[in-house]
């Protein structure tokens, strides 16, 4: 009977080590975590759902661009804007300071190209001025986004000269101050 010329044990260790090294290079890892109350806290760098997503379903708030939301769904406002919110709802972001005079066309286009926003309609402008302290609220007329249709004496909305409740309309080629509005 032939004698075994090598001891097999080290050979299997070597194969095991090679497989252990190669396996993670080609394998996808899929981990499903099911948690029950109380659920753990977690911070994720990136999170993707391929189907439904449910957030803050039993209370709490959802923040986008903020870690301190105070209403059900809140987007952070850019610098220079005031967050307009009440009653667990964010209405939008109103520019805190007005722009210098420009035509209605320039005002509308500037708000869109700069912020992706628009001019506020009168109700948005009014509640922002009436509930928050913004600059130059009643020093002059500011363009509004409502009454956009021009013709037969109608014009683009304007408000703010001498009081919050003074609103009228003006032809869009006139020049007025304005501030931009970003809906939530
Ligand atoms: Ca003003």
What do you see in this structure?
This protein has 184 residues and is an alpha+beta fold. It has a domain at 78-183: Roll (Mannose-Binding Protein A, Chain A), CATH 3.10.100. 22% of the residues lie in helices and 22% in strands. It contains three helices and ten strands; from the N terminus they run H-E-E-E-E-E-H-H-E-E-E-E-E. It has helices spanning 9-26, 104-115, 122-131, and strands at residues 62-64, 73-75, 81-86, 89-95, 99-103, 142-143, 156-159, 167-170, 175-178, 181-183. The strands form four sheets. Strands 3-4-10 form a three-stranded antiparallel sheet, with helices on one face. A three-stranded antiparallel sheet has the order 6-7-8, with no helix packed on it. The longest helix has 18 residues, at 9-26. It starts with 8 loop residues before the first helix and ends with a strand. Bound molecules: calcium ion (CA). Calcium ion binds at residues 98, 136, 139-140, 142, 160, 177.
